[in-house]
Amino acid sequence: MDKNKITFFIVSNQSGQTRKLVIPARLAKIVSTFGILILMTLVAGVIDYLGLLYQTSENKRLKAENAQLTKQFQIVEGKISSLETSLERVTTFTTKIKLITNIESEDRSMKLAMPTQPPANQAIEEFDQPIDQRESSADLEKMDQEFQDKKPLNETQGELAENSGRDYQSLVIRVERAIKESQLREQSVLDLWETISEKQSLMNAIPNIRPARGWITSRFGYRVSPFTGRPSLHTGLDIAAAPGAPIFGPADGLVTFAGYDEGYGKMVTIDHGHGYQTRYGHLAHFYVQVGQRVNRWDIIASVGNTGRSTGPHLHYEVRLNGVPKNPAFFILDE
């Protein structure tokens, strides 16, 4: 027998015939080697394919978890933003109360920002200018827009911009700051409540509600006078409203004036005690008389267009010991 050849016998089950296939041994080895290589390649391919299927499944799972975590992160971030907004409102509200009750505040910068007695040479806007020289309400409202711009971020105090820092580290910082701030605000409010409880009569005398519903067309502060064209102090708020709209007393007090003034038109003045006094100008009608005691939310007059006025509105002033103050600092119901 030739050892360099391999013989294969093929027997048919149907015909019973036998066939002989003789191939060189070297060729058989080559075919076997290629067969083994092909089999190993197929096995490796199947294993890689199964690995890819598993990796794809794992990627889908990770993507689903990532989407869920992103959604949860957004929810937490929204709650933190809501908490920060609430803390800001509490801080503003507490600061207002401290200011109007003369309670010492830790942040004295707000108190310094309150207007004081104008300089001796500084003009104070009155209503004795010709009516045809006064600017329209639309122009005054346009001027007021500069007071309504958003305040810039103060990075020195750790404020974060809305579009930056949306990661885990910044969120942790915001959470820690909100927790500390809430603890400080809680203690501050408790201390404030104890102080206010001891000053109940003072609280009843403070004009802390908006006397009329409407939109503000002219704010308190120094500006170019629409009458003289020179810088002057507008001593109150102009609140535009429909003619006849009710005007409410912002605090308990005693009516000290109810009559007609050349500039203010029909006017009411209320002395609330503790140095607080309020004025109401350009009235259509007043429903109180001198010497009458009024309470907070009592209807004292109605919006009109009397005196030096270009349209129906209320000119509202708050004075403390005779000094004009910004009424917006006292309004707590908005």
Give structural notes.
This protein has 334 residues and is of the alpha+beta class. The chain has 2 domains: 5-66; 67-144 and 165-334, Glucose Permease (Domain IIA). Helix content is 38%, strand content 24%. Strands 3, 6, 7, 8, 9, 10, 11, 12, 13 and 14 form a 10-stranded antiparallel beta sheet that branches. The chain has a two-stranded antiparallel sheet with strand order 1-2. A hairpin with a 6-residue loop joins strand 4 and strand 5. The longest helix has 76 residues, at 25-100. The protein is rod-shaped. It starts with a strand and ends in a 9-residue tail after the last strand. The relative contact order is 0.11.
User: Radius of gyration in whole Å, from Cα?
Assistant: 41 Å
The CATH architecture of the largest domain is Distorted Sandwich
The helix-and-strand class reads alpha+beta
Q: If you consult CATH, what is the topology of the largest domain? A: Glucose Permease (Domain IIA)
Largest sheet: 10 strands, antiparallel
User: Count of helical segments?
Assistant: 5
Shape: rod-shaped
Tally of DSSP β-strands? 14
CATH class category of the largest domain: Mainly Beta
User: Helical content, roughly?
Assistant: 25-40%
Strand content: 15-25%
List the helices and strands and how they pair.
Layout (H helix, E strand, L loop, with lengths): L4 E7 L6 E7 H76 L7 H6 L23 H8 L23 H30 L2 H6 L9 E4 L2 E4 L6 E4 L2 E4 L5 E3 L4 E9 L3 E9 L2 E11 L6 E2 L4 E5 L9 E8 L2 E3 L9
Antiparallel strand pairs: 1-2, 3-6, 4-5, 6-13, 7-12, 8-9, 8-11, 9-10, 10-12, 10-13, 13-14
Helix pairs in contact: 1-4
